[in-house]
Amino acid sequence: MRDPDDELAELEAGQLRRSLRRIDSPQEVEVRWEGRDYLNFSSNDYLGLATDERSKAALIEGVERYGAGSGASRLICGTLAPHADLEETLAGFKRTEAALTFSSGYATAVGTLSALAGKDDAIILDKLCHASLIDGARLSGATLRVYPHNDLDKLASHLAWARRKIDTEAGRILVVTESVFSMDGDRAPLEAILDLKEQHGAWLLLDEAHAFGVLGRTGRGLAEAIGIEDGRVDLQMGTLSKAAGLSGGYLCASRSVIDLLINRARSFIYSTAPPPAIAHAAREAVDRIRGEEGSVLRERLWENVALLETALGVKAESAIVPVILGENEAALSAAESMREAGFLVPAIRYPTVPRGQARLRVTLSAGHRTTDVERLVASGKKAGIFLP
């Protein structure tokens, strides 16, 4: 029988073994790790809401009003008032007929894709889609096609193939992409993708995980930022674990799609409902994100993004700025150099990114001060990680 220690040794030899990093402080711009404080440039808490006083107060209020746990799955007796209120708020915010929340973004992707597609269907994914989307597509049993990252010609070719193969009366064609890609930080050419999917009678699942709260006048995401607010995006997915500072995922769509997910999405049906306090706090976070406070936080975040892109001479399309170093050894060495300088910017390696594209993934927050970003740049240039 295969020995786990041998497998771990193989990972070690390839510089791919990972271990948990225990943080002994709240998830803030400055965190404590192994007895030392570090400036944190690795968190997805884009608006700084994870430890915000109002966020904590809303969570505490939710516990006091609704208790610590839900007690059952959503279809038994686990749908408490905060769950329904949050879904109503999300649907209103995203301008869809309905919404459904899941325990995580991963559960949202896996549950949605495996519920909406099967052996008579086709799913066409961007090559850099998140693992949760890939896993959901594989679990569905649909025929899969992958197009090179943001390659519209290949997407068009795959759609034409799917139209020939799939019975459009009985089958379904789904295009899947992220709006902001989690490791590269670049954006999908959304309007062109929408044109193509409509030409070929397909649906689009758009994962706005890293755009929710960050892009658009009110933080609805890339669709809002480019003025696509007329129902052209069939399935709007996102998470509450990044800009909202909490946990969970959501899918916004038509009422009939949401009702179908309630009946078929296994990751929804067979999971105990998320704690009602999380839903209560998330609804309050969405209200803040779309209000004046959200506008102020987004402005502060984008000021930090502009400062970093100017200092590094790069174009940033989101709060994610990758510094691609190539081999695993180079990325691990760079992360260690930044750690010695007092910064938490971990190395990202295969399989999270393709082989030969190991990197530091710098993420910015509204909570970062100008001096924090300036110190990061100065230290990175001194270590030879950021080009001068």
Layout: helices, strands, pairs:
Elements: H1 4-13, E1 30-33, E2 36-40, H2 53-66, H3 74-78, H4 81-94, E3 98-102, H5 105-116, E4 122-126, H6 131-140, E5 143-147, H7 152-165, E6 173-178, H8 190-199, E7 203-207, H9 222-225, E8 235-239, E9 249-253, H10 255-264, H11 266-269, H12 276-289, H13 292-312, E10 320-326, H14 328-340, E11 343-344, E12 347-348, E13 358-363, H15 370-382
Parallel strand pairs: 2-11, 4-5, 4-6, 6-7, 7-8
Antiparallel strand pairs: 1-2, 3-9, 8-9, 10-13, 12-13
Helix pairs in contact: 2-12, 4-12, 5-6, 5-10, 7-8, 13-15
Characterization of this structure:
The structure is a single chain. By secondary structure, the protein is α/β, with parallel strands linked by helices. The protein has 15 helices and 13 strands. The protein has helices at residues 4-13, 53-66, 74-78, 81-94, 105-116, 131-140, 152-165, 190-199, 222-225, 255-264, 266-269, 276-289, 292-312, 328-340, 370-382, and strands at 30-33, 36-40, 98-102, 122-126, 143-147, 173-178, 203-207, 235-239, 249-253, 320-326, 343-344, 347-348, 358-363. It has a 7-stranded mixed β-sheet with strand order 3-9-8-7-6-4-5, with helices on both faces. A 3-stranded mixed β-sheet has the order 1-2-11. Strand 7, helix 9 (222-225) and strand 8 (235-239) form a beta-alpha-beta unit. Helix 5 crosses helix 10 (255-264) and helix 13 packs parallel to helix 15 (370-382). The longest helix has 21 residues, at 292-312. The chain starts with a helix and ends in a 6-residue tail after the last helix.
